[in-house]
Amino acid sequence: MQLRGIFAALTTPFDDSGELRLDLFERNLASYESTELAGYLVLGSSAEAIYLTTDEKRAVLRAAANVQKIKLAGTGEESLRATVEMTRYAASLGYAAAVVRTPHYYKKSMTPAALIGFYRDLADTSPIPIILYNIPPLTGIDLTLDATIALASHPNIVGLKESSGNTDKLVRLMAAGLPNFAVLVGGASTLYPSLCAGASGAILALAAAAPEACLAIENAYRAGNHARALAAQQAVLRACAAFEALSIAGLKGAVDVAGDGARYGGPPRKPQLPLTAAQKQALAEAFAGLRIAVPAS
Amino acid sequence: MQLRGIFAALTTPFDDSGELRLDLFERNLASYESTELAGYLVLGSSAEAIYLTTDEKRAVLRAAANVQKIKLAGTGEESLRATVEMTRYAASLGYAAAVVRTPHYYKKSMTPAALIGFYRDLADTSPIPIILYNIPPLTGIDLTLDATIALASHPNIVGLKESSGNTDKLVRLMAAGLPNFAVLVGGASTLYPSLCAGASGAILALAAAAPEACLAIENAYRAGNHARALAAQQAVLRACAAFEALSIAGLKGAVDVAGDGARYGGPPRKPQLPLTAAQKQALAEAFAGLRIAVPAS
Amino acid sequence: MQLRGIFAALTTPFDDSGELRLDLFERNLASYESTELAGYLVLGSSAEAIYLTTDEKRAVLRAAANVQKIKLAGTGEESLRATVEMTRYAASLGYAAAVVRTPHYYKKSMTPAALIGFYRDLADTSPIPIILYNIPPLTGIDLTLDATIALASHPNIVGLKESSGNTDKLVRLMAAGLPNFAVLVGGASTLYPSLCAGASGAILALAAAAPEACLAIENAYRAGNHARALAAQQAVLRACAAFEALSIAGLKGAVDVAGDGARYGGPPRKPQLPLTAAQKQALAEAFAGLRIAVPAS
Amino acid sequence: MQLRGIFAALTTPFDDSGELRLDLFERNLASYESTELAGYLVLGSSAEAIYLTTDEKRAVLRAAANVQKIKLAGTGEESLRATVEMTRYAASLGYAAAVVRTPHYYKKSMTPAALIGFYRDLADTSPIPIILYNIPPLTGIDLTLDATIALASHPNIVGLKESSGNTDKLVRLMAAGLPNFAVLVGGASTLYPSLCAGASGAILALAAAAPEACLAIENAYRAGNHARALAAQQAVLRACAAFEALSIAGLKGAVDVAGDGARYGGPPRKPQLPLTAAQKQALAEAFAGLRIAVPAS
Questions:
Q1: Does the pLDDT of residue A279 top 80, yes or no?
Q2: How far, in Å, CA of B165 to CA of B137, rounded?
Q3: Which CATH number fits domain D5-223: 3.20.20.70, 3.40.50.720, 3.30.70.890, 3.40.50.1100?
Q4: Yes or no, beta carbons of A193 and D197 under 8 Å apart
Q5: Tell me, what's the pLDDT at D235?
Q6: C85 vs D: CB within 8 A
C-alpha cells in the first residue's frame, strides 16, 4: 500500500427520516470508482460515524468492502477496547489500514503519554496498519509533534491524517525525515502548499463532492507545474468556503449538487440541521463556478 | 420529584483488565443508600459512559434500578435517535429523569438553534423529564444562557446540570426566575457560593467519594449558617484539587481511599492511565485531611 | 488603609474630538464624594489608561489627588521600569496603593516566574503598597493561584483585583488564609456570591455609573441579610448586561444616563466606536429599570 | 517601493541595566547593510517597542533613518491619535511605510468595523503607506479575511504582515487577487510554503539573527528550485524552535550567537527574564547547526 494521492472522505447516506441507505452508498461508490482518486476513507468525520450504531458501522464497512481502490476504515472509538474491536473487523473485511482519531472526551487525561499508550497498544494488536488522525477543531486536543514522532517509529503505524491546518507542524514533521511514515492532510483549501511542504497526499471531504477539482491540484503539483497547481488551488476556495461553513449538511449538499445526479448526499442525522433552500442554492452556485474555474491539465 | 440536594455522580467499576464489575457497582450503591444524599446520577461523565458499549450501558442502568433514592440516568448520545432510545430504556426502568449532555462533536453545527431543536425533539418524546447538561471543559461547546432560558419553558425540561463553573451565568439564570426549572451545579469546589447564587443543589463527583463532606456544605447553607457553610466549603478544596487534577483515575482513586473499604473505585478504562503509587499516596493524604477538616454540624 | 467595600473604577472624560477633559473628571469626582463608596481606582482598564500619553496619565492622577476617599492608582505598564516610575509618581501624590495589571504582551514569556519577579521587584522599590491585578479577558494571561499565593507573602503586596470571574480560584485563594492580603473582585454581576466566598470587596466599573446599586448588594451582605443581598444582586444584572456588551463606550454611556446629569461619561477614544442612538436608548432603559429594581435597605 | 523579499524584524539593544544602546543598534545596522536583505522593520514586536518610552521610540527611529535598504517603522499604538502621531514622525524621517499592529486591549470592542475605521482613519492622514499587521498570538484578536480585503482597497494601504501562521487565510487572501497589496508573512518556519501560496516575502525575526538562512529559502524559490527551497526551509527549523521557545530573550540570544561578533543581541528588558547559561548554550548549538545545514545556492 502506498499512502499517496487524494482519498475521498466519504459521506454516509441517510433518507429524510434518518435511516441508513446502503443502496445509495453503493451507488456513490460506483461513481467514485471511475475517478482517479487513490482511495477512500469510510467512517471518517465526514461520514457521521459518531451518529451510527455499532451495527450500522459494521454494515457500512461491509458495503464498501469490494471496491477496487485503496480503502481505509475510520475505526476510532473513545475506548481502546472498542477501537481494537472495530479495527479487527475492518481488517477482516480487507481494509488496507485503519484511520484512528485521537480519543478526546476526557481532555485533561489525554496527555501525550496516554495517547502514545493508546496508539501503541492498538498498533501492537491490529492486523492492519494504523494511521493516526489529528483533528483538533472537532476533538479539542492536539496530538503533539513530539508524540507523533515517537509513534512513527512503531512498525505498524504508517501515517498521519493531519487536519489541524497547522503548516508549521507539517513542515517540522516532514523535516523529521520519518521513514515509512506518510502525512496526509485534511484540508482542501491548503492542499497545494501542503504538498510543497512535503505531504504525501490528502484525505478530503471535498473529494467526495468534487474529486476532479482536488486531483487537478495534485496532478499539477506532481507534474512540477507550480503555476497551474496554484491556479487549481485557488479555483476550489469558493466551493470550500461554501460547504465548510455548513458542516456535514454542507458537505452532503455539495455531494448532491456537484455529482451530476450520480451521487447522493442527502440530509445529515439530527441534531444536525438540514440545509435551507437558500443554503442549497448558494452551494449550487459555488460548485457551478468550481466546474468552470478548474484549470485543464 | 424535587431536584434539590446533593446527588452523587457515580463511577463505573472495572477490574484491572477493564471488565465491567456490576457486583462492585451494586456494593457501592448499597453503601451510598445509607447516606443523606438526595440521589444518584448513573452514566454521567464520571461513569466513563463514553467507554461503555450500548449493552454495558443498559446493564449498568439495570443494576441501579432498585435503589431507594432518586435516580437520574445519563442518556446523552451524539445522535438524537440514540439519545431517544437510551432515554426510553431508562424510563422503562423507573429512572426519575434523564440528564442529557449537549451533543458536541460537530462543534460548528451545534448552534443554539440545533441544540434547542435537539432538546425539544427529545423532550417531546421522552416518557421522563429531561435535565440539560452543559459541560464545556469536556464538550468544547457552551449551551448559552438564552438557549437555556428558551428550553426551560418546555414542560418536560425540568432542569440543568451546569458544569461550566461560570458563576455569572448561574446568577443570570437564577434571576430569570424560571418556574419549575432547577439548576444543579457540577463543581464541589464552588458549591457554597453556587447555593448562595440560587442553585437548588449539585451533582458531584466528589459526592461519590466523600458524600458527607459535600452534605456538610449544603446542610450548613440550608440551616442559614453561612460561616459554617464557608468553612465546610474550604474544607473540601484540597481533596478536590487532589483528585480533579487526575481526571477519572483520580476520582476512582478517591472512591477507593475515602470509603473505608465499603466502596470500590478501581482503575479507569484505557486509554486513561491508572494512578501511580505516588499519586495514590497523595490522594490518600488529601482525603485523610478532608475527614478531619469537615466541620461538625 | 483597609481594602474593603466598593471602589469605583473611574472613567476618563474626553470631548467629542478625543481631548482630555479634566474639568469634567473633577466634576464627576465631586459627585462620587457624596456617596458611600470606599474609594476609587484612577487609571484602571475602565479609564482607557492605555489610550493616554504619559503626561495625560500624570495629569489625571493629579486631578484626583485631593479626594477624601481612598484613592488607588492604576500604574501598570508593560515594562518594569515604566511601572516603577508611574508608581512612584502616584505615591508622591498621596495615592494609598497602586493597582498593577499583569504585563502580558509577550505572552509566552510571562511565565509565573517572570510575573513573580516583576511584582517582587516593583514591591521592593515602591513607596506604596501594591495590589495585583488579574484580568485575563483583556490580557490573555492568567496570574495563577500559586503565583498569587507566593506574592502575597511580600510585605508590600497587599491584595489582588481579580477580574477573571473565576469563582473556583476565588474560593481557593480565600481558603489559603493569606494574612494581610485582600481580594477585591472586578465583576458586579457576581458580587454577592463573591462576597459569600470571602472577597473583601470589589473594584467595579458599574460603581462609576450606579454606585448605590452596588452598595445595596454589599450593605445587605454585611448586614447578614442574604435574601436582600441576592435580590440586590439580581437587580443589577440587566444593567450589567446592557453596558458590558458595549465595552468602554457602554460604560461611559451608562455614566451619562445613570447620573442624573451630575456625571459626564462621553465618548471613548478611537479606535473604539461611539454608541449609536439605539444603543444609548437601550442603555437608558436598562438603567431606568435598575433604579426601580434595587431593594431599599 | 516594492514589498518583496526578506525584511529583518530588528531587535533593540539594551545593556544589562536595561538602558537603550543606540550605538550598538547602529553597529547592528551596519552589519545588516552588507546582506541581501530587502530591508528592515524598526520597532516591531521583536524590538520590544512596547517597553520603550515615546522618546526612546523616536530615538530608535532616528538611529535607523539613514540606512540604504528599505526601512519600515512599527508605529502602532493602542489609540488612533498616538498611532497617527508616531506614523507622522516616521514619515518625517523618510521611512518607506508604517507597519501598524491591530489595537487590541479592549478585545470585545475591536470588531471588524472598529478595526476598519482605525486603519482607514490612519491611512487617510498618513503621509506614508500603511501595512496592516496581524499577530493574534500576541494581541489575542484576528484581523479577519473580510476586513483585510475591505481595507486593501484603500489607496494608502499597501500590504499586510500576517503573523498568524494561518495558511488557509493566506491562500484565500492571495486568491482574492488584490491589486497593489502585498502579503508578507511573519514566520520563518513556514516561509517556503507561504511563498508557494503567493506571499511576496516576509518580515522575520530570524532574519535579524541569520539573514542568509532566510535568504537561501527565498532565493531558491525565486529561482524555481523547489527542492532546494524545501531543503533550505527544513534547515532553519531547529534554529527556529530553539529561539522561538524563549521569546525575545531567545531572539536576542540568537542575534548574539549567530552574528560572528558583528551584532549585539543582549538581554531583554524586564519583566522578561534573561537567558540562563544552559539556554544560551542550546541556542549556540542550534545556530551552529544552522550554518552547516543551509544549502549552498
A1: yes
A2: 9
A3: 3.20.20.70
A4: yes
A5: 96
A6: no
